[in-house]
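Quarterly update from the structural biology core.
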Amino acid sequence: MIQFNHDKFLPFAETDLAPWLNNIAQQEGYAVAQLEYNFVGADIMLSLNQEYLNHDTDTDIITFDYTESKVIKAEAYISYEALKKNAQTYSQTIEEETLRLLSHGLLHCMGYNDKINEQKELMRSKEEDCINLFHVKH
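Predicted structure, tokenized:
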């Protein structure tokens, strides 16, 4: 089950996003049991970042990954404000940045990281593959 919690923010139909995310997981040999995306304000994101990661900054996405044995269970929090700022900074549409962050959270659950440059490059490449896959279907 894939769930999206937002206040009329999501620029796509959830019925388009869920199959896309399931397809990404399947291509990597994973199954999605439960994946929840929560779109929140900067204040909530900062609070989560401080409480769980000991960071005193805003961020675009935080993923709490409970995946075991290639069965994905996770909850992700995406900051509306950071998403909009990223889109502007990187000359992306809100739609493209939304797809990037949704796939980013899922990729973390499948073992992809972005702590060092080499990992970041692979993560960005995988995100682009995911975005392209969405556009092929829609």
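Helices lie at 14-27, 42-53, 80-89, 94-109, 117-137.
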